[in-house]
């Protein structure tokens, strides 16, 4: 096992696809300035994923968490961990250092892996190919279901039955099919007002 392998296992280094300061475009914190850390690696395999280049962790540079934190906190104290699937990795050291720096940590996850690390806001976006773990259902703060076709409304209802009662419920049109599905989502939310609409507003604003 190489030094990089050991550091990855211990969470002292992570494969980082990209990191950037922007405006959160989705869910509860839409419109909030935040620093995004996109961690490489995902085995969930959604066919409509818009960041498939994140899937192979081996093609992304390995960065020490000390360097990641130093850069992140120079921009914002609101940090979003995303991917890929960030919970594939040991996030304990990274989140500990971010918390020591006074950060509020959000994560966007499919829930296919159990929660680890210190996370303040969990956005669960479940996928049919690999359903969430029970602990993620229990601790998620928001449930965000991507709507690509009509069957996804049924999937959303099934997921809402599993999520904890305090979680906010969002339906979000898949970007490539948004013109067809957005009117259907509007109609569904008007009939089922416990749900809210989430849009990928960052794409409309042409920002990362």
UniProtKB/TrEMBL annotation:
It catalyses: 6-carboxy-5,6,7,8-tetrahydropterin + H(+) = 7-carboxy-7-carbaguanine + NH4(+). Pathway: Purine metabolism; 7-cyano-7-deazaguanine biosynthesis. Binds 1 [4Fe-4S] cluster. The cluster is coordinated with 3 cysteines and an exchangeable S-adenosyl-L-methionine. Binds 1 S-adenosyl-L-methionine per subunit. Keywords: 4Fe-4S, Iron, Iron-sulfur, Lyase, Magnesium, Metal-binding, Queuosine biosynthesis, S-adenosyl-L-methionine. One of its GO terms (molecular function) is magnesium ion binding. GO terms for biological process: tRNA queuosine(34) biosynthetic process. S-adenosyl-L-methionine binds at residues 48-50, 84, 125-127. InterPro entries: 7-CO-7-deazaguanine_synth-like (IPR024924), Aldolase_TIM (IPR013785), rSAM (IPR007197), rSAM_sf (IPR058240). Gene3D superfamilies: Aldolase class I. Substrate binds at residues 23-25, 38, 82, 208. Its cofactor is Mg(2+); [4Fe-4S] cluster; S-adenosyl-L-methionine. It holds the Pfam family Radical_SAM. Residues 29-208 form the Radical SAM core domain. It is an enzyme of class 4 (lyase). [4Fe-4S] cluster binds at residues 42, 46, 49. Its EC number is 4.3.99.3. Homodimer. Belongs to the radical SAM superfamily. 7-carboxy-7-deazaguanine synthase family. PANTHER family: 7-CARBOXY-7-DEAZAGUANINE SYNTHASE. Catalyzes the complex heterocyclic radical-mediated conversion of 6-carboxy-5,6,7,8-tetrahydropterin (CPH4) to 7-carboxy-7-deazaguanine (CDG), a step common to the biosynthetic pathways of all 7-deazapurine-containing compounds. This is 7-carboxy-7-deazaguanine synthase.
């Amino acid at each position: 096992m190489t030094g990089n392998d050991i550091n990855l296992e211990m969470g002292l280094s992570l494969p980082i696809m990209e990191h950037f300061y922007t405006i959160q475009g989705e869910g509860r914190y839409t419109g909030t300035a935040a620093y995004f850390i996109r961690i490489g690696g995902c085995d969930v395999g959604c066919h409509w994923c818009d960041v498939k280049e994140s899937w192979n962790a081996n093609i992304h540079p390995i960065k020490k968490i000390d360097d990641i934190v130093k850069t992140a906190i120079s921009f914002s104290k609101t940090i979003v961990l995303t991917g890929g699937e960030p919970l594939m990795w040991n996030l304990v050291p990274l989140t500990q250092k971010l918390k020591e720096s006074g950060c509020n940590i959000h994560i966007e996850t499919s829930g296919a892996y159990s929660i680890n690390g210190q996370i303040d806001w969990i956005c669960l976006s479940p996928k049919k190919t690999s359903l969430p773990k029970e602990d993620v259902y229990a601790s998620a703060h928001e449930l965000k279901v991507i709507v690509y076709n009509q069957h996804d409304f049924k999937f959303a209802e099934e997921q809402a039955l599993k999520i904890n009662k305090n979680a906010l419920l969002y339906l979000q049109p898949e970007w490539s099919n948004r013109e067809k599905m957005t009117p259907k989502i509007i109609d569904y939310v008007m009939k089922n007002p416990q749900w809210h609409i989430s849009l990928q507003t960052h794409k409309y604003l042409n920002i990362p």
